Automatic annotation (TrEMBL):
GO terms for molecular function: beta-phosphoglucomutase activity; magnesium ion binding. Mg(2+) binds at D8, D10, E170, D171. The active site is at D8, D10. The record marks S115, K146 as: Important for catalytic activity and assists the phosphoryl transfer reaction to Asp8 by balancing charge and orienting the reacting groups. Keywords: Carbohydrate metabolism, Isomerase, Magnesium, Metal-binding, Phosphoprotein. It comes from Lactobacillus kimbladii. This is Beta-phosphoglucomutase. Substrate binds at residues 8-10, 24, 43-48, 51, 77, 115-119, 146. It catalyses: beta-D-glucose 1-phosphate = beta-D-glucose 6-phosphate. GO terms for biological process: carbohydrate metabolic process.
Length: 225
C-alpha cells in the first residue's frame, strides 16, 4: 500500500539544476576544462564533490589539486549558485508539481526530499513549499552519493516506511539507478532512453498525475507480490 513519496529536488520540483550546471560550467572554464553537453549533463543529481572530481577527471586534472584546493573550488561554485537561488520564487516551481503535492496531501501521503544538494532547505523555503515535506535527508550525513541507494534508503527510514510503500521521483539516470538499487518504485522525468530503468516515465513534470502513477504502482506491486 502506498504511504509516502520521495522527491529529488533539482529538475524535479524546480529547475535549479540549470543554475548548478551553469556554475559548474563556469568553474570548469576557469580551470581550462571544456565540457561537452553530455559531460555537463552527467553532473545532474550527484554531490558537490563528486561533481567536481568528475569535472577534473574529464579535464585529466585529477591529481593537479589538493583536497583543500578542491574544497575552495566547490565553495566558489556554491557561492555563485546561491546568488541565483536568492532570485527564486514560487513561480519557479515546475508545472504540475503544485497539483501533485496537493493531491498527495489529500491522500494522506507523507513526503521526503532526497537531494544531493545541501541547499535543499533554502530552495524549498524560496519556493514556498517547505511545509509540504515531512522530512529532508541531510546529504552531509551520507557516506555515498547517487547512484548508490543510501540517500533513498535514508529517506524511506525517515518516513518509517518499507520499500514497497513509497514512490520516488527523479530526473537523472544516477538517481533512477539509486531508487532501483533501494528496491523502490521509480518515476523518471525526462528522456525515456536515459531514464529507461524507471518504472514510470514522463517527458515533463506537467504530465505527473498522482492517480495514474498510483495505478501503475499498484499493478507493479501485484506482479512482485
Amino acid at each position: 500500500m502506498l504511504k509516502g513519496l520521495i522527491f529529488d529536488l533539482d529538475g524535479v520540483l524546480t529547475d535549479s539544476a540549470k543554475f548548478h550546471l551553469a556554475a559548474w560550467n563556469n568553474l570548469a572554464q576557469e580551470l581550462g576544462i571544456k565540457l561537452t553537453s553530455v559531460q555537463l549533463d552527467s553532473l545532474r543529481g550527484i554531490s558537490r564533490m563528486d561533481s567536481l572530481n568528475l569535472i577534473l577527471k574529464y579535464g585529466k586534472q585529477e591529481s593537479k589539486y589538493t583536497e583543500t584546493q578542491k574544497e575552495e573550488f566547490a565553495a566558489e561554485k556554491n557561492e555563485k549558485f546561491l546568488e541565483q537561488v536568492e532570485t527564486m520564487t514560487p513561480a519557479d516551481i515546475l508545472p504540475g508539481i503544485t497539483a501533485l503535492l496537493a493531491d498527495a496531501k489529500k491522500a494522506g501521503l507523507t513526503m521526503c526530499i532526497a537531494s544531493a544538494s545541501k541547499n535543499a532547505p533554502k530552495i524549498l523555503s524560496k519556493l514556498g513549499i517547505a511545509s509540504q515535506f515531512d522530512q529532508i535527508v541531510n546529504p552531509a550525513l551520507l557516506k555515498r552519493g547517487k547512484p548508490d541507494p543510501e540517500i533513498y534508503q535514508k529517506a524511506q527510514q525517515l518516513l518509517q516506511l518499507h520499500n514497497d510503500e513509497v514512490i520516488s521521483f527523479e530526473d537523472a539516470a544516477a538517481g533512477v539507478a539509486a531508487i532501483k538499487a533501494a528496491h523502490q518504485f521509480a518515476v523518471g522525468i525526462g528522456d525515456k532512453q536515459i531514464l529507461k530503468g524507471a518504472d514510470y516515465i514522463v517527458k515533463s513534470t506537467k504530465e505527473l498525475k498522482l492517480d495514474q502513477i498510483v495505478a501503475v504502482f499498484k499493478k507493479n506491486n501485484k506482479k512482485v507480490g
